[in-house]
Design brief:
The chain has 271 residues and is mostly beta strands. Helix content is 9%, strand content 46%. A hairpin with a 4-residue loop joins strand 7 and strand 8. The longest helix has 18 residues.
């Protein structure tokens, strides 16, 4: 009886601690769902004021059912949901907050797992000069198994939109996954390039900057260059590309994984 009481108290304390401002330390048991309660969501701030300009920015998130798939809607003043809110820490620093359970229902038509992502529809070409930078920290209930993309850019190819670069977290490691997709978006002249960006601790802030210039991609972590990749000559320089940011699981329907990504200092557009 005493052991059950102690265990119950521990679970309650763990759940309460995750809901406070100390979200950076909320890597807890994978047996608990940490989505906001109805009351917490009611009191949460909409993310609208975070952005300088919301034109062309949409949120993609699960519908809750496989038949309805993924939903997409523009960022408006009052819009928020359990997947996307504004978080303010004890120093009054504001972050976009992305929250997602890997077992949620509602994937995109071509996706293998669920996602909650911002899509910046302001398209650009690989031959242009573009920058995509942000500072983030992330927490998860299962750091050994959770694998998800935080930021990426995709090319609008002939058969489907395909990611040319993804920033991925997995088992305390950060990687850049770069693919030289050809015009069809499926074939590649070489294998996938997986560039290590170094280890990290969940809850620690990391700054990422991608710079694209005339078909060459440079990636910086905390101001140190980690990747210098020139896309293969068969990758289309004149096809359109776009940026995405949030959580996109690579676990393919893995249950009992709940993760959050918190983002500040977001810049995406022409250099």
């Amino acid at each position: 009886m005493m052991k059950k009481l102690i265990l119950s108290i521990f679970i309650v304390i763990a759940m309460i601690s995750c809901k406070t401002t100390d979200v950076k330390s909320s890597t807890l048991s994978d047996s608990v769902n940490f989505y906001m309660t109805t009351e917490e969501l009611k009191n949460a701030q909409p993310p609208y004021k975070f952005f300088k300009n919301v034109n062309g920015i949409d949120l993609q998130y699960p519908s809750g059912s496989e038949s309805r798939g993924m939903l997409s809607r523009p960022i408006t003043k009052g819009f928020k949901n359990k997947y996307f809110t504004l978080y303010t820490d004890e120093k009054n620093t504001e972050y976009l907050r992305f929250s997602l359970d890997a077992s949620d229902k509602g994937k995109s038509k071509n996706g293998s797992s669920v996602r909650v992502e911002l899509k910046n529809s302001k398209e650009w070409k690989l031959k242009d000069k573009q920058k995509f930078s942000y500072t983030f920290f992330t927490t998860t209930t299962n750091p050994l198994e959770a694998r998800y993309t935080v930021g990426q850019f995709l090319q609008c190819c002939d058969l489907k939109d395909s990611p040319l670069c993804r920033i991925e977290v997995e088992n305390y490691q950060l990687n850049a996954v770069v693919c030289n997709y050809q015009a069809d978006g499926k074939t590649k002249p070489d294998s996938t390039h997986k560039y290590p960006l170094g280890s990290f601790n969940y809850g620690d802030e990391i700054s990422i900057s991608m710079e694209i210039n005339n078909g060459t991609l440079k990636i910086y972590r905390d101001s140190q260059i980690k990747v210098n990749h020139t896309f293969h000559e068969t990758v289309e320089r004149n096809y359109l590309n776009y940026f995405k940011l949030g959580i996109y699981y690579q676990n393919k329907d893995s249950p009992k994984i709940f993760s959050e990504v918190f983002v500040k200092n977001l810049e995406w557009g022409a250099m």
